[in-house]
Amino acid sequence: MPELPEIVALERFLAEHAVGAVVGRIDVAALSVLKTFDPPITALSGRDVTGAGHWGKYLGLECGGLWLITHLSRGGWLRWLDEPSPHPPKPGKGPLALRVHFFTPEGSTPAFDLTEAGTKKRLAVWVVPDPAQIPQIARLGPDALEISEDEFAERLGATSQRLKTVLADQTVIAGIGNAYSDEILHAAKLSPFATSSTLGAEKTAQLYEAMRTVLTDAVNRSVGQDAARLKGEKRSGLQVHARPGLACPVCGDTIREVAYTDKSFQYCPTCQTGGKILADRRMSRLLK
């Protein structure tokens, strides 16, 4: 799933490539991704693209008083096309969900695709005058790269969730998902199962600094990359996430995994848990 660094990079990519253009035809290949119908998505056609923005993991394009907002979900992505097909795509089971065509001042006619593998599209698209009208955006906590250290400490202290859970809770802090929460906890040398309300001032400051460092470094690596290269850039910078069984690049210990029904997370025992192996629910064991 694209998280805050990739969404920021996509926002800046759209600001560079789409702002100043005029929206042309919009092809809807998967009607299920449209979450609003008034105004219709066709209302964007003919409008000037005046800005781009993001709200946590939500990406937006401002089009003459309306916003086209998308959440790419777990498997969605944005693909830029310099020379798209002039023919409307056929609705079906392919990855394409939506295609937005543009007319640029230079006379070119690019487009971007919103795609998602699989037959079930979880990717979502809204057309609204104000992004805050989308309930999911209205409930977001402050952006992970904009929250102050004091507010971060206050929000963590107000909940008793495990750190792995609270970092990815979008109502607490917006923009962090499964991958970067693993990376942040590894950088902070904290257990994913540590409880936020009992962290203490020193470790809370340590976690805040790790969050800022990991996300800022990821943004710096991602911004300026072509949209198609962002997934690879994200993977190349990961230290523990999606690397079970490999050596930790910091200490050399074997990276371990805890798996649930539909997701998993990774950590380094030496760096984060004092050498303790966390219980894996696949083996019907729970950490107490």
UniProtKB/TrEMBL annotation:
Domain Formamidopyrimidine-DNA glycosylase catalytic as annotated: residue spans: 2-119
Its recorded reaction(s) are: Hydrolysis of DNA containing ring-opened 7-methylguanine residues, releasing 2,6-diamino-4-hydroxy-5-(N-methyl)formamidopyrimidine
InterPro entries documented for this protein: FPG_cat, FPG_N, H2TH_FPG, Ribosomal_uS13-like_H2TH, Znf_DNA_glyclase/AP_lyase
Q: What class of enzyme is it?
A: lyase
Pfam families, per the entry: Fapy_DNA_glyco (PF01149), H2TH (PF06831)
Question: Which keywords belong to this entry?
Answer: DNA damage, DNA repair, DNA-binding, Glycosidase, Hydrolase, Lyase, Metal-binding, Multifunctional enzyme, Zinc, Zinc-finger
The catalytic activity of this protein is classed by the Enzyme Commission as 4.2.99.18
- Domain named FPG-type is located at 239-273
Single annotated GO MF: class I DNA-(apurinic or apyrimidinic site) endonuclease activity
The text of the family note is: Belongs to the FPG family.
User: What protein is this chain from?
Assistant: Formamidopyrimidine-DNA glycosylase
Organism for this UniProt entry: Nocardia aurantia
